[in-house]
Input
Amino acid sequence: MPDTQDFTSDPALAPPTVNTTPGPEYADTARLWQGIPGIERTPGGRLWATWYSGGTTEGPYNYVVLVTSDDDGKSWSGPQLVIDPPGFVRAFDPCLWTDPSGRLWLFWAQALGHWDGRAGLFAITCSNPEASSPVWTEPRRLCNGIMMNKPLVLTTGEWLLPVAIWRWGSGLGKTNADLKLGLTPEQVKAGSHDMGTERGSNVVVSEDQGKTFRLLGQAHDPRSNCDEHMIVERKDGSLWMLIRTDYGIGESTSTDAGKTWTPGQPSGIQHPVTRFFVRRLASGRLLMVRHGEQAGTHRSHLTAYLSDDDGKTWVGGLLLDARNGVSYPDGTQGPDGTIYLIYDYDRGGDREILLATFKEEDVLAGKPVTEAVRLRNLVNRPPLVMRSNADGEPLAGPGARLTSAAELDVAKYGALLFTDRTYRFEHLPEELVGKAFLRSSIGACEARCTADGYVWVLTPSEGRNRDSLEKPLLQQGFTKVVLREFRIFDGMANACSVFQKKLAAGDKLQLGKWSVVLFDPQ
Output
């Protein structure tokens, strides 16, 4: 496929088709990973939510999904709209926003491959967002860059869009996702863009309610990391920008309506390297949703805070979800003060998109005190569909005898899997219960065969987990076994298949991250 694609035509600039009748290829059952959500509430109360998926992770096969709820988020539709550019152009980082006139905007970014050095912000709008099937405008490209956070409307009427051009790459082929495409040097050159001084935490302005857009200003933090910046207008008229950085959250200020910005510097808000959310509420307070102090460097303890003094101090602290793997909050507020906060959990495993609702009183109290509180409400989670592996071979035997420096144990429910992890067998095909297995580091397992026979290796199936050993095993002469895929421990990323190979005495077995090796007991 790469050899036949013409990158000189700059396909990432082409407006994609807006698919309002998505087929089964976009159904929940077809998605191997998903995340990076956004949410908006229409003036009439309909909720819309978006995220992106496609492929096995962030990369050239990504597409944007849009769903809706007409019962205040208690239940949600399947995909109502999909943006899926052709070829190696991906759609990603979507954003929903209701403008002052009541129009609903869906923004997304397009890039060739994972990152082509430039990307581009596209948008469609609808004037009847209360409808379950609204009419959308044709897509149009607004500017270079990426925007996943909502625009800001200044008190003077201008719209400011926080659009980033990442500083860490100048073209196609620099990331693992791009390298796997097998592009030629000519294709990499044709598809790459070095944006030079345009890289940064940019501010794009519209002075005519979205008819036209132009680059207004730019902030720079030398340690920005995907930027993901947000802007709020302070009560004194200055603008405060918060930026995702390698050290936490950086800040920059503007006193001329976004034209010039101070150099980025630490804000003093400790945070992992990930997205946060900040927004001015109807009360005048600022809301911030971020990972709490307990999280350290982990994406856990997603917590809501409030500020009465334009971000100098923060009070309250309503814990929304303490689990490791919760991330990327986005929110909006209803006319009764209810805050709607969307986020994702375990993108390649359980693949949950979740909704929390609450009010300012709950945040200030640090616990639920109003009837508005609903936590960990499911917006979307693909079913855990296991592959049949019907194309595999029957389980063979007898088993080999192995010697290894690894610990020896019996495969059964509850047995500890690795020496350096706390994971335990939660599921195992009946045919394998009672086999011996090697408990080694999750990163590597080595053994030597002392008597001829088969060994069976359990590893995540290709596409389930980035650490799947399916391809290396097949290259080493293993074959897949006709046993249904199973979750060895919690999470769809840990859905494993069984592979087998007959070893001869003296053969060595060396496996990387990660697998579990089984053989017949001594």
In short: The longest helix spans residues 185-191.
